Design the sequence.
């Protein structure tokens, strides 16, 4: 009985520590043509908002890992190259307050952290073939959750869109 109670507490804490994150993608420009890309180049453009360097670096590292690194033993989705170019820039960033998220426990969006990235998908001839806005949010967690969760959700949205539409 004690083991089960302890296990339940550990699992409960791990879920609340992780934070409540969500992500969504808005397609701004649907691809008019279907291209298959074997290789991708990732380029960060000038953001329209102020973003901490550690968040910007984390986003790029996680995006490249998602596109070029395979899961344990899996084949990577893309190699590095110029079949498809992903230009991205931060168009919204609010780090929020980890303390406020902890204090409110995710109620009412108090202390919420949000980021939105615009990603343009460019073919090898330099023509824009698609554009999306990807959003990541962090709203709660026992320790307030970290903005890392929003970065991961945003990266996941951009990478999944690329894999689904251009692989």
Sequence:
């Amino acid at each position: 009985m004690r083991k089960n109670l302890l296990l339940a507490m550990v699992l409960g804490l791990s879920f609340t520590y992780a934070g409540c994150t969500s992500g969504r993608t808005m397609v701004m420009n649907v691809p008019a043509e279907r291209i298959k890309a074997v290789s991708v180049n990732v380029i960060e453009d000038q953001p329209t908002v102020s973003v901490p360097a550690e968040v910007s670096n984390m986003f790029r590292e996680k995006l490249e890992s998602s596109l070029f690194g395979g899961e344990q033993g899996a084949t990577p989705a893309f190699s590095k190259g110029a079949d498809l170019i992903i230009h991205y820039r931060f168009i919204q960033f609010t780090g929020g307050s980890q303390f406020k998220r902890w204090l409110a426990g995710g109620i009412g969006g108090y202390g919420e952290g949000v980021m939105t990235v615009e990603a343009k998908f460019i073919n090898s001839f330099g023509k824009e073939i698609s554009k999306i806005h990807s959003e990541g949010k962090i709203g709660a967690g026992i320790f307030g959750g970290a903005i890392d969760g929003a970065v991961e959700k945003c990266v996941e949205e951009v990478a999944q869109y690329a894999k689904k539409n251009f692989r």
